[in-house]
Specification:
Length: 478
């Protein structure tokens, strides 16, 4: 079994070395920028946003995962500015992407479930970039983001596949083929904004068999070591037999997407499009994989559902605002992404309906670490689509999560609240709700303040009944 990374102990020491290296770079950069140098602005000709559906951050080798799920992304992260504490606002595809495109929380844009439409009145990053003269094109792979979601606003090209059960999505190879065909037509010979959405790690997992075989630990010591890692390090509670198979399939899907993303990246070079490009790679949300006795996402907003990778990669070394590094000590949210890309161009989501929540990461990308980027990360979950009959997985009510670098607080309208020492207990296993009353009160008040300021009675429009039924049949709405 060639792809198993060194054991957790070795991997942890690599991370420590990486931290040390990052610290040195941080110290040097801080010295350079201490005199208040302005943030470095570049205007990329090509902006590529890649969202990998259901990609949980800690299943990537550069987050310490012991299986080599993503050699390309790992090498990309090494040449990029990578945020290791990035969070999405929802564990559901439509709401999470809507925040990524508008810099608004779901409470504001009101897309709180798959099957709801992003209203035309909201300004999206694609609309702003189209106004700035960028050709805009999207290639999406999963049904929840098809045209009815109206995330298409601002895109001149919006490419969606025909999908039917049991293959409910477009696999990464076919999506990559479609993007490459578009690139090869020459339609994209000037400035463009390209969004590529890969779906494969989402259920149903059907990775090519060769990927499963390549990644599966050998029976015996290797498998034992892997199981021990899942239980002891990842705190997975459903680790035996079927769950283990599903986790290996999930990892194989990540590796499959990684291979296709590498193919896409190298095609840029082959077609002469490789220079002056900004690549932003993230995930819309993660996946339970046995933590909190839950395999999926939708239901919870524990960090296995909302902790995502976030990479800013500038293709040209001399156009990079600062040296590549992993930023470990700053909280970052998805709403920061569109604001940052537009800040690079000296523009913004002007005229947005609602207060923009994003803060530009440009100072951090430029090596200015003098402040706190944001004091907390906020996520939410609210089910608004009526459940289909006989579905037992539907849960009513609202959940909100707030975390800083030490604590995470979870509030639930239909059940008790929870508090975790996220620094010491990153997998949220020991509820401290009765042991830290001051932290509980502080974080509860912050959530109440956010919800009071942003919540409204508005509801986003629900897609037509036929589409909703199709989404249900494909498992996107429960
Ligand atoms: Zn998703």
């Amino acid at each position: 079994m060639a792809l198993l990374m060194p054991g957790p102990g070795h991997s942890a020491s690599s991370i420590r070395r990486r931290d040390l290296r990052a610290l040195l770079i941080v110290a040097l950069a801080a010295a350079v920028f201490a005199c208040g140098a302005p943030a470095h602005r570049v205007e990329p000709e090509r902006i590529v946003l890649v969202t990998i559906d259901t990609l949980r951050a800690d299943h990537l080798p550069f987050f310490g995962y012991p299986i080599d799920t993503a050699p390309f992304l790992t090498s990309l992260a090494d040449r990029s500015i990578s945020f290791t504490k990035a969070f999405s606002h929802s564990a559901t595809t439509g709401p999470a992407h809507s925040s990524l495109f508008t810099s608004l929380y779901p409470l504001q844009h009101r897309v709180q479930d798959n099957g709801q439409r992003l209203d035309d009145g909201f300004v999206t990053i694609s609309e702003v970039l189209a106004d700035r003269g960028y050709e805009t094109a999207a290639f999406v792979s999963g049904r929840a983001l098809f045209g009815e979601s109206n995330i298409a606003q601002g895109f001149e090209t919006y490419n969606t596949p025909r999908v039917n059960a049991p293959r409910r999505y477009r696999p990464a190879k076919r999506t990559t083929d479609a993007v490459i065909r578009w690139l090869e037509t020459g339609a994209a010979d000037g400035k463009f904004f390209l969004w590529v959405h890969y779906f494969d790690p989402h259920r149903p997992q059907r990775p090519p068999r060769a990927y499963v075989e390549a990644l599966r630990p050998s029976p015996g010591d290797e498998m034992d070591r892997f199981e021990a890692f899942l239980v002891d390090e990842h705190r997975s509670e459903w680790h035996r037999s079927q769950m283990l198979r599903r986790i290996i399939s999930y990892d194989a899907e990540i590796r499959f997407v990684d291979t296709q993303l590498e193919r896409l990246y190298s095609t840029f070079g082959d077609l002469g499009l490789g220079s002056n490009a900004l690549w932003v790679v993230t995930a819309d949300h993660g996946q339970g994989l046995g933590n909190h006795e839950w395999f999926g996402h939708h239901r919870y907003i524990y960090n296995e559902q909302i902790h995502v990778p976030l990479i800013f990669h500038f293709s040209d070394a001399d156009a990079r605002p600062a040296a590549p590094r992993a930023i470990d000590d700053q909280l970052v949210e998805h709403v920061d992404v569109p604001v940052t890309i537009l800040d690079l161009l000296g523009t913004s989501l002007n005229g947005q309906r609602g207060t923009i929540q994003g803060r530009s990461l440009l100072p951090l990308l430029s090596g200015d670490f003098t402040g706190t980027h944001r004091p907390f990360a906020f996520s939410e979950r609210r089910r608004v689509i009526p459940t289909a009959r006989n579905r037992l997985t539907h849960e009513p009510g609202e959940r909100y999560a707030l975390q800083d670098l030490t604590y995470k607080y979870l509030w639930y309208s239909e059940g008790p609240d929870e508090l975790y020492d996220i620094a010491a207990d990153p997998y949220e296993t020991r509820n401290l709700i009765d042991e830290a009353p001051q932290e509980r009160a502080r974080m509860k008040q912050t959530i109440e303040r956010i919800v009071a300021a942003l919540d409204s009675d508005e509801e986003a429009e629900i897609v037509d009944e036929a589409t909703l039924e199709q989404l249900r049949s494909l498992g996107y709405v429960r």
